[in-house]
Amino acid sequence: MFVTPAYAQAAGAAAPAGGGMSDIFIQLMPILLLVVIFWFLIFRPQQKRLKTQQAMLSSIKRGDTVVTTGGIVGKVTKAVDGEDLEVEIATGVKVKLVRGMVADVRSKGEPVNDNKPA
After folding, report:
1. Which residue spans traverse the membrane (predicted)?
2. Could you say which of 44, 53, 71, 100 has the lowest number of CB atoms within 10 Å?
């Protein structure tokens, strides 16, 4: 009584082949779009920042003025690759720092030549 002939014909017909896959793809499209947006807005810039930070830490050498993550400013007196740094924070006051705790290198100093005759 309430069924129209067009509805009755569509209900009895078989679903077209492959129709289910396109429906799943259409439903997953917003999620995939969000993943791509997060990748370009969050993950890529974070990876770039990490690479520049690692490059800065590996290029620290003797004579550089550094700022620690605690805000202490000092001059590097001893720097060995892959190890701790020795930083002079006041005249005669030297502290050991882990390389990862350096927040910024303020000025690049010229390395001191220890081989010069006095």
Report:
1. 24-43
2. 71
Q: Is CATH 1.10.1760 correct for 61-107?
A: no
pLDDT 10s digits, 58-106: 889 899 999 999 999 999 999 887 788 999 999 999 999 999 899 999 8
Supply the mean pLDDT for the chain: 82
Cα–Cα distance measured from residue 118 to residue 113, given in angstroms and rounded to the nearest whole number: 11
For residue 90, count CB atoms less than 10 angstroms from its CB and return exposed for 0-12, middle for 13-18, buried for 19 or more. Answer: exposed
Q: What is the pTM of this model?
A: 0.58
Alpha-carbon distances of 5 from 2, 14, 24, rounded to whole Å = 10, 16, 30
Write out the two tokens for 18. Answer: 């492959």
